[in-house]
Design goal:
This protein is of the alpha+beta class. It has a domain at about 35-85. The protein is built from three helices and three strands; from the N terminus they run H-H-E-E-E-H. Strands 1-2-3 form a three-stranded antiparallel sheet, covered by helices on one side.
């Protein structure tokens, strides 16, 4: 069990893709004020100088930030997003980038017979 703890500590020291870097860990520890979290488990922090950052729950992927928190992170709004905020019926649930997965967008194949060309191809 203690070996797993040592591995976790080494991951924090030597890898930036494992939630946060050591520098971000220190900045959060000394200067960060916890502001909130989203439905994916990402935690958002703010400093006295109004610097804002996120610590991801799993893999670091910028598309995991929801649109509400994105606005807050980029100083567009000052109010921290809340899950009780009203959503419109036309708003879809946030999805992270689906590129490279089975859910990625694949356009339908164009049939050559139905394609009306406005030019004649070279022969």
């Amino acid at each position: 069990m203690w070996i797993l703890n040592i591995i976790m500590i080494l991951k924090i020291f030597f890898t930036w893709w494992n939630k946060q870097t050591f520098g971000t860990f220190l900045k959060t520890l000394f200067f960060g004020k916890y502001v909130g979290s989203d439905e994916y488990g990402n935690k958002y922090f703010k400093s006295k100088k109004n610097e804002r950052w996120v610590i991801y729950s799993k893999n670091i992927e910028a598309t995991k930030i929801t649109s509400d928190w994105y606005l807050w992170m980029h100083h567009t709004i000052d109010k921290t997003p809340d899950s009780s905020d009203l959503k419109f019926s036309w708003q879809k649930k946030h999805l992270e980038n689906q590129t490279g997965t089975n859910n990625s967008f694949r356009p339908t194949k164009i049939k050559k017979n139905n394609l009306d060309k406005k030019y004649e191809t070279w022969k």
